Amino acid sequence: xxxxxxxxxxxxxxxxxxxxxxxxxxxxxxxxxxxxxxxxxxxxxxxxxxxxxxxxxxxxxxxxxxxxxxxxxxxxxxxxxxxxxxxxxxxxxxxxxxxxxxxxxxxxxxxxxxxxxxxxxxxxxxxxxxxxxxxxxxxxxxxxxxxxxxxxxxxxxxxxxxxxxxxxxxxxxxxxxxxxxxxxxxxxxxxxxxxxxxxxxxxxxxxxxxxxxxxxxxxxxxxxxxxxxxxxxxxxxxxxxxxxxxxxxxxxxxxxxxxxxxxxxxxxxxxx
Length: 272
Ligand SMILES: Nc1ncnc2c1ncn2[C@@H]1O[C@H](COP(=O)(O)OP(=O)(O)OP(=O)(O)O)[C@@H](O)[C@H]1O
Ligand SMILES: [Mg+2]
What we know:
Layout: H1 6-11, E1 21-26, H2 32-47, E2 51-55, H3 60-69, H4 74-80, E3 83-87, H5 91-95, H6 104-117, H7 129-136, H8 142-155, E4 160-164, H9 167-173, H10 176-192, E5 196-202, H11 215-218, E6 221-230, E7 233-243, E8 253-258, E9 261-264
Parallel strand pairs: 1-5, 1-6, 2-3, 2-4, 4-5
Antiparallel strand pairs: 6-7, 7-8, 8-9
Helix pairs in contact: 7-8
The chain binds adenosine-5'-triphosphate (ATP) and magnesium ion.
Magnesium ion (MG) binds at residues 32-33, 57-58, 164.
């Protein structure tokens, strides 16, 4: 399944295997969100595969604006119903313990009102005690994500999903053991629903490392983005760290971000 980034498809020998859970990791500013935007947006535009982009870190407007800066037209596809950019980052702020919102039904009303502004339907929440519990606990967790995906699947034939990022779920929940368990169960859910997904996580240390040390075990494919300092110059690099069900390129390649998106130089290798 093409990733929406032609040069990345060359490294992956065609793209992500269909119906798999994939991971993109990197430090802040490395291009993780852009990878997700290209994956979901071009899935709709070029391959007619409806997509859902869940943002937890950045506001919806910020994602739409970034997409437009790369020449994408997200609003058009959102209107047609093939693309959804859903910001869930603010959910817990409305229902959580520090929220100013009144508890119970009135809190739900506030959530509905705010969701309308974001073009998001939250009616599913009333039938989802697990998600409700997470939100009242003050964080958006995997149960909430699952409920959102499930409710959208009832209305639309979503094929591609991006979650930007799962690291923020781990950081907010504050319990690493729980994060691991729920992440794996979320992965099973995504495969069950026959979605091809791309999850984002952080990486700070050596290339290939991930924030919680488990995200790469779950993933079928792991794309590592890095910002390296090579002879005094900052360089973006990409490596395919892992790919189940197929062969892939294993080199460290330089890439640039242009107005057309990510462009990997697949013929050049970075010596470390
Ligand atoms: N229109 C554009 N043309 C060229 N480069 C751009 C353009 N828009 C953004 N960039 C570059 O893309 C990078 C942002 O990538 P992105 O937001 O995908 O990274 P990220 O890993 O998701 O970072 P974070 O989540 O920490 O903000 C920035 O470093 C910026 O310089
Ligand atoms: Mg980002």
